[in-house]
Amino acid sequence: MNKQIKDFLIQQEIFVNQKRVYHNAFNTEKGEIRLCQIIAKPPIIPNILQNFKKIYSVQSRNVIQYLDFVESENNYYIFMEQLNQGTLDDIINTQNINEDKAKCYFREILNGLKSLHENKITFVDLSPKNIFKSDDSIKIGQINICSDQLANMQTEEDFKKFGIVKEIIPPEILQNQTIFSMASDLYTASVLYFKMIFKRFPFNGETKTELIDKIKENNIDFTCQDQAVSMETIDFLKQTLKYEPSQRLNWSQVYSHPLLKLLNIVNDYIVQSTLLSISINKLITRSDLVTKTFDCEKNRQFYQEIEQNNQAVNNNNNIEPAQNNDNALNEESEQFKKQLSIVKDLFKSQRTTLLKKQVDYYIEQRNMYSSLSETLSYVRLFDQEFKSFTLQFVILKIIYLISQSLIQQIEEIKYATKPEQCFTQNLQEQYDNLKKKIDEEHKIINSQFNKMLEQSQSNLERARMRGNVDQKISDIINKTSQYTLFELLRDQTKQFIEKVPTFNQIIQNKKIDPKTQYEIIIQVLFSLALIVSYLLKWSPTQILQKSPIEYLEYIRQESVETLITECQQKSQSIDQAFDKISKAQIRQF
């Protein structure tokens, strides 16, 4: 299948999950492979578009990133990030999950649910087939799309027809007795936790009626052949798998329960993605930017505030008529508060969009100076033979300019509106985390640049005394004209590339093998390609033909002959592109 939908070219089918078909989708604008889920019409709940608009704003390491939603005459097309490491269902069916591992997966599910609850999304489709594996975490795959059909489903075949696992559906929703709630999400998550440990569901029934009866009986078998199960797990499941939602633990109690408290260390960093763990030389993706924490107390406070607000609303609804008359005087004030809330939500949506764009902008520029930093390491390695500090200076100067641009951009978000009014707690943490990374990196870059500037000026002074200084180099170091800076980068890079075959290895004083030579040359060209494409507002794939990360993997696997051809082609492409760059574009940079 090759079908163009907006900016996506839908390609081969990956797998089918009942009414949902998954395809690879190539983003022709950004040159990236994404995932497309195609849902045939019907079934789908009427307000799915509204729900998907909500989920676009969710940025969480435990929720799949949604990119676009398109409706055609026959289908819904849902575009999302590419996840090809399997599902929770695959893990359950192929691995023996011990209790500790199940707890880790469980808290990842809870983290994802909290991010959705912050955006007022409840009752997601927590089927094991819709929870995806991604590196060191798992991601909730999609919101529920067939819930309005539940009332018409009775037998196992009815549920399978729509790809729904009835055993994970809360009894109140099976009976269509209530609107979706966070209490329902807790029941479903607990069923999954039970399934991971015991390899079966806590309740079973051939029909929906039989299943509901079993849930009412609440006779759960906690025997496990594979492992000893802790009392904390058993107690937790007893209190969250009850038939009546009101009798289950509420969410603030969940985060006070020993099951999670035993796992908790204040601000327990599972993986902390900062400059200390991400080398400047490494290309990054969005998932590298998310601080991975599990903080019971912070999550407990979040849910406690919601529960207290709900209780206040319930108490207000039960006020005597005479009191209601008094409260009518405050109706105008309440209306004003509602309008203010709408305005805040609007600002929050705008700031969310702005932050997402800034993250993408950061990744683009971060990968530019990551590649430049890699090139810089080669230049320094062979600097004695290259006999020039100028290229080092130029590379660092461009990295410095990129870093300054990032700082300016992130500060603009800060002053767009007041953060305390327009960011959710999760978004505020993301903003703070991103700002911290940029600030930390800039300090390192600034320090390196200042040292190199001093060294370059010293070398320049010695060259002046000898009378063999190049005036263009002198102007660049003294005035740092950006247009001539990029011209010099291109010229000095060409000189460096021409000399690579003559460089001797530092160790054993041997010539570099041809494979390594051309990998170095391509790395240097790769840096130039990123910069040129960025200045022209092109996608890097217009020069590289692949995404940056895919391109480097491709180069490492190819033969010397292919690399020689690749070098020639890329050098020509970069020269042609560079000639299109105007002074105005560089001044804008």
TrEMBL record:
GO terms for molecular function: ATP binding; protein serine/threonine kinase activity. The lineage of its organism: Eukaryota, Sar, Alveolata, Ciliophora, Intramacronucleata. The keyword Magnesium does not apply. It comes from the Eukaryota. Residues 424-466 form a coiled coil. InterPro entries: Prot_kinase_dom. GO terms for cellular component: nucleus. This is Protein kinase domain-containing protein. Keywords: ATP-binding, Coiled coil, Kinase, Nucleotide-binding, Serine/threonine-protein kinase, Transferase. Residues 1-260 form the Protein kinase domain. Signal peptide: none annotated.
